[in-house]
């Protein structure tokens, strides 16, 4: 048992380092992508998305790009070591499964990197953003899987409100990632409406098509860009309300109070940064911060989900439920 506990502690430490590294890679990658797109450039907004009107340029290895390469390389090496520690001498589940998924996603993103230099490939940009968030979440799931809770069958079910909130949050993140990948940032510059429009137009639905090769960014008031912004805002509002209600319901439970408080705090931060981003005219650092705190919110929600699932599973176990004795 001491040997297994020692392995779990080592796996947990490696996974914690990976969570921090993947978050740093995510932030640096977002900064490079947004700066390259011209976000916050001197001749704003005319200078935005000029990279779409020309062939991809040769990469310049500045400080941020070198930091990105080094962090990503160290992350890949750590992920390989993590998988080895999870597998040998005997597989430790569920950490082993999560670590293998993490390494697989890293490998897929490394392959995707061959096409990442062309900003006109919007689907590649979208997959890179979602993949970066996925790395943070999977790393954190490995950390959570090392908790020494007794395994007693399948995980318990969480509340319907929380599950709906998770789905809404995931859709919000997907819409936000697609807005970034399709360079739709300047299509909407007002709050709470979108240049006088309050509801997505049917004419803007083609903007959800991921199989497009970009030649220019949507202009202010563009129906497709406005549709993306409004969908993102309304789904985000639904996610905030659902997750807030689910978190408030669990504040009374001591074992989930810290996780629920973290979710509520990060909801306020992410929602506030989203509003500030638009009202500031799309400040580069506010956009990057919005993405970074979104990753933290996803991790906090995963943590809350797991704790509630374990609590329900344990309370329903004959060994732990006094009513069944």
TrEMBL record:
<dbReference type="Pfam" id="PF02628">
    <property type="entry name" value="COX15-CtaA"/>
</dbReference>
<dbReference type="InterPro" id="IPR050450">
    <property type="entry name" value="COX15/CtaA_HemeA_synthase"/>
</dbReference>
<dbReference type="GO" id="GO:0046872">
    <property type="term" value="F:metal ion binding"/>
</dbReference>
<keyword id="KW-1133">Transmembrane helix</keyword>
<feature type="transmembrane region" description="Helical">
    <location>
        <begin position="12"/>
        <end position="32"/>
    </location>
</feature>
<dbReference type="GO" id="GO:0016020">
    <property type="term" value="C:membrane"/>
</dbReference>
<feature type="transmembrane region" description="Helical">
    <location>
        <begin position="260"/>
        <end position="278"/>
    </location>
</feature>
<comment type="pathway">
    <text>Porphyrin-containing compound metabolism.</text>
</comment>
<dbReference type="InterPro" id="IPR003780">
    <property type="entry name" value="COX15/CtaA_fam"/>
</dbReference>
<keyword id="KW-0350">Heme biosynthesis</keyword>
<feature type="transmembrane region" description="Helical">
    <location>
        <begin position="66"/>
        <end position="87"/>
    </location>
</feature>
<keyword id="KW-0408">Iron</keyword>
<dbReference type="GO" id="GO:0016491">
    <property type="term" value="F:oxidoreductase activity"/>
</dbReference>
<feature type="transmembrane region" description="Helical">
    <location>
        <begin position="99"/>
        <end position="117"/>
    </location>
</feature>
<keyword id="KW-1003">Cell membrane</keyword>
<keyword id="KW-0472">Membrane</keyword>
<feature type="transmembrane region" description="Helical">
    <location>
        <begin position="123"/>
        <end position="143"/>
    </location>
</feature>
<keyword id="KW-1015">Disulfide bond</keyword>
<keyword id="KW-0479">Metal-binding</keyword>
<keyword id="KW-0560">Oxidoreductase</keyword>
<feature type="transmembrane region" description="Helical">
    <location>
        <begin position="284"/>
        <end position="304"/>
    </location>
</feature>
<feature type="transmembrane region" description="Helical">
    <location>
        <begin position="164"/>
        <end position="186"/>
    </location>
</feature>
<feature type="transmembrane region" description="Helical">
    <location>
        <begin position="230"/>
        <end position="248"/>
    </location>
</feature>
<keyword id="KW-0812">Transmembrane</keyword>
<dbReference type="GO" id="GO:0006784">
    <property type="term" value="P:heme A biosynthetic process"/>
</dbReference>
<protein>
    <submittedName>
        <fullName>COX15/CtaA family protein</fullName>
    </submittedName>
</protein>
């Amino acid at each position: 048992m001491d040997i297994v506990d020692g392995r779990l502690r080592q796996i947990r430490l490696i996974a914690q380092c990976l969570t921090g590294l993947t978050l740093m890679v995510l932030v640096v990658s977002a900064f490079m992508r947004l700066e390259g797109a011209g976000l916050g450039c001197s001749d704003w907004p005319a200078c935005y998305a000029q990279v779409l009107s020309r062939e991809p340029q040769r990469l310049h290895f500045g400080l941020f790009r070198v930091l990105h390469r080094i962090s990503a390389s160290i992350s890949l090496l750590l992920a390989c070591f993590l998988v080895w520690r999870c597998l040998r001498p005997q597989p430790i589940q569920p950490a082993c499964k999560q670590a293998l998924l993490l390494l697989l996603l890293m490998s897929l993103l490394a392959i995707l990197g061959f096409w990442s230099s062309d900003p006109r490939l919007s689907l590649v940009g979208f997959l890179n953003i979602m993949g970066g968030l996925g790395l943070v979440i999977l790393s954190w799931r490995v950390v959570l899987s090392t908790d020494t809770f007794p395994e007693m069958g399948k995980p318990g079910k969480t509340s319907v409100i929380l599950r709906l909130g998770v789905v809404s949050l995931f859709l919000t993140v997907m819409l936000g990632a697609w807005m970034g990948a399709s360079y739709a940032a300047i299509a909407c510059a007002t709050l709470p409406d979108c240049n006088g429009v309050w509801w997505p137009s049917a004419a803007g639905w083609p903007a959800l098509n991921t199989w497009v090769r970009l030649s220019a960014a949507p202009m202010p008031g563009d129906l497709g860009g406005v549709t993306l912004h409004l969908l993102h805002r309304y789904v985000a509002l639904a996610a905030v309300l659902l997750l807030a209600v689910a978190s408030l319901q669990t504040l009374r439970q001591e074992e989930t109070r810290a996780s629920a408080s973290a979710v509520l705090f990060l909801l306020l931060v992410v929602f506030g940064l989203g509003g500030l981003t638009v009202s500031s005219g799309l400040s580069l650092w506010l956009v990057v911060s919005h993405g970074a705190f979104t990753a933290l919110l996803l991790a906090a929600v995963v943590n809350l989900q797991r704790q509630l699932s374990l609590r329900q599973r344990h309370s329903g176990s004959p060994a732990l439920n006094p009513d069944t004795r």
